[in-house]
Design a protein that fits this description.
- The chain is an alpha/beta fold and 287 residues long.
- The chain has one domain: 3-Layer(aba) Sandwich (Rossmann fold).
- It has 7 helices and 6 strands.
């Protein structure tokens, strides 16, 4: 199922709110574009299809919106940041990872401290683009005999427990009153029902755990943040340091293309779809 744009009435409500509430936020600098009208903004060709180029990304978020990208140094995270930064009406972009702001998924205090630096302004868009596939030089297992308990535990620490801690400290900071979106980058191989190849047992099962964490968090967050959408997203097979060693023979997309498609999909996902597991193109992935 491909997900369409949000209903206009809701969008209108969010936009109305933003005009009053975003006053005073840092103004974005764009020399050749209207500073606040997303309709004057078009994606450069490197981001992919005409459909994407002509789509004013994230029009469901209010002008001056605040975005937080965790994993901002990664292939997909940095492409998402570049795209968000080029958005004419973004108010605030916070980049986090070990390289940006000393946020380490293996250290809850560092996560709590990074969240604490955000202050009181709510988050409109939260992207968790952290993750690992190779652990300390060890490739993902091809067979049961390759399972190593330390490697498997670290997969779970970084790909499941870490994002759970991000959910704990960052999701309560989503906007409580108006639309907000939180996306955790998962992987299609985390789907149990879609698993026909076997292998990669630690990565697959850590991502399956992440999907359950996202689903469970979405239910709790809906009670306090009824307009929030919290989803797990498969970004596609994307040419990054994480996947390059394993993507030979697979159709791949660039990180720029993945970023554009992910943001376009998130723009169209409403609060009624919170807790979903989606592909970058908006199609639903079975658990
Ligand atoms: N690329 C693909 O084809 C593909 C396919 C399916 C799913 N995914 C998922 O998409 C997400 C992003 O993948 P990517 O390809 O962009 O990977 P990447 O280029 O290797 O980036 C990984 C990001 O995770 C951060 N990270 C790793 N360990 C961390 C830690 N202990 N604490 C804090 N941050 C940490 C890294 O930042 P620092 O090193 O600065 O901390 C980096 O920003 C991952 O969840 C991955 O599983 C990717």
């Amino acid at each position: 199922m491909t997900i369409g744009p949000a209903p206009f009435s809701l969008r209108q409500a969010w936009t109305t709110k933003s005009v009053t509430e975003t006053a005073g936020r840092k103004a974005p600098k764009f020399s050749n574009r209207h500073p606040t009208d997303p309709a004057t903004w078009m994606l450069p060709a490197r981001y992919g299809s005409m459909e994407t180029q002509n789509h004013p990304l994230l029009h469901s978020l209010p002008p001056g919106f605040r975005a937080v990208v965790i994993g901002a140094s990664g292939g997909i995270g940095s492409a998402i940041c570049d795209l968000l930064q080029s958005r004419p009406d973004i108010g605030d972009l916070v980049r986090l990872s070990r390289s940006y702001g000393d946020l380490d998924l293996l250290d809850e205090q560092s996560i709590e401290a990074a969240a604490g630096t955000l202050g009181d302004a709510p988050i409109n868009l939260l992207i968790c683009a952290t993750g690992v596939l190779t652990i300390d030089g060890r490739p993902p297992e091809k067979a049961l005999r390759h399972i190593d308990p330390d490697t498997m535990l670290k997969q779970f620490q970084i790909n499941a427990v870490g994002p759970a801690l991000l959910a704990k400290h960052f999701l309560p900071r989503l906007d409580r009153h108006f639309r907000s979106i939180a996306a955790f980058l998962s992987a299609r191989v985390g789907s149990i029902s879609d698993n026909r190849l076997g292998g990669w047992i630690a990565y697959r099962s850590a991502k399956a755990a992440l999907n359950q964490i996202v689903r469970t968090a979405s239910i709790e967050i809906a009670r306090t943040h009824p307009a929030a959408t919290v989803v797990a997203v498969h970004p596609g097979t994307v040419r990054t340091n994480l996947s390059n060693p394993y993507s030979q023979g697979h159709a791949t997309i660039t990180a720029d293309q993945a970023a554009a498609r992910i943001l376009q999909t998130l723009d169209g996902v409403g609060a009624e779809q919170t807790g979903s597991f989606l592909a970058y193109d908006g199609s639903q992935i079975s658990w």
